[in-house]
Amino acid sequence: MNKSQYSFIMGYICLLFQILIFIIPNNYKLNFLISWSFVLIYLSLILIFSKDIYKGIKNRDIANNIYWIGIIIYLIGYILFAINYKKYLLSGNILFIIGSLCIIYPIFNIDLEKYKKINNIFTNKLLYKFWGGVYFLIGTICILYSVYKSSHLFSKLGMVLYIIGRIYFLEETPASFDNLMT
Known about the structure:
Layout lengths: L2 H21 L4 H21 L1 H9 L3 H23 L4 H16 L7 H7 L3 H28 L2 H21 L10
Helix pairs in contact: 1-2, 1-8, 2-4, 4-5, 5-7, 7-8
């Protein structure tokens, strides 16, 4: 299994977990297990892509480095949720906001016309990553609002936006069902 296939499979597992959290709300045991699963998935992705991360650092690829910083910030947020969801709800969501901003940032740091000429899959890769980050960002803001206003509606809206964001992230992955088994 190559990196893109692994990333694709892990993305679908994350989507399944987010749907479970949406369907079965306020189940802290389930949330605990899923949060630790997210931690393991994000750690494994960081390890698998460590050479790419190092290459970005070595080449001073600011957009790539900020993207991976966002992924690491998501990881820290998931660790806090896994340790104690209720206790770290605010700090975990603040980390998700910062992580989402890091994932969105690279789209503003490129010459779009030059990129379009170089890369025909511009809309498939970069924009899916961008919109995934935007939906995660807005979803996190909705969940933070729900915490302060005790709004079940905004909590559900936030989870729906997370799920939509995850689907965008899946569309961004280089693998597909067609090449999954190759």
